[in-house]
Amino acid sequence: MIEIKHLEKGFQKKQVLKDVNFNIPSGECTALIGKNGAGKSTLINILIGELKQSKGDIQDPQRLLAKDHLGILFQTSQFPKVIKVKELYHLYAKIVKNPISLKQFQDVTHFTEQQLNQFANRLSGGQQRILAFALAIVGRPQLLIMDEPTSAMDVEMRSHFWKIITQFKQQGTTIFYTSHYIEEVERMADRIVVLDEGSITT
Question: Model's pTM, two decimal places?
Answer without folding.
Answer: 0.91
